[in-house]
Specification:
This protein has one domain: Roll (2,3-Dihydroxybiphenyl 1,2-Dioxygenase, domain 1). A four-stranded mixed beta sheet has the order 1-4-3-2, with helices on one face. Helix content is 17%, strand content 33%. Strand 2 and strand 3 form a beta hairpin. It has 75 residues and is of the alpha+beta class.
Length: 75
């Protein structure tokens, strides 16, 4: 079993995040990602569990790796 991508295994890779300059950039990138048929995990939204300004979208690639695009500054 190839377990180099595993959410719960310590040391295994499962998540890569990218910082956006604005919420607008998160929204624009989401539209492009959705247009190519990516596996959307969460559309752009506030994730209060990470803070009141944590605006992000999450998607997965064909290997199951989760990607995040986030803007985390006050509007």
């Amino acid at each position: 079993m190839n377990d180099t991508v595993h959410r719960r295994k310590p040391g295994a890779f499962h998540h890569l995040g990218f910082r956006a300059d604005s919420r607008k950039e998160v929204d624009e990138l989401y539209q492009k990602i959705e247009a190519i048929g990516a596996n959307i995990v969460y559309p752009p939204q506030i994730f209060l569990e990470h803070g009141p300004n944590y605006y992000a979208t999450f998607f997965k690639d064909l290997d199951g790796i989760k990607y995040e695009i986030v803007h985390n500054k006050p509007v």
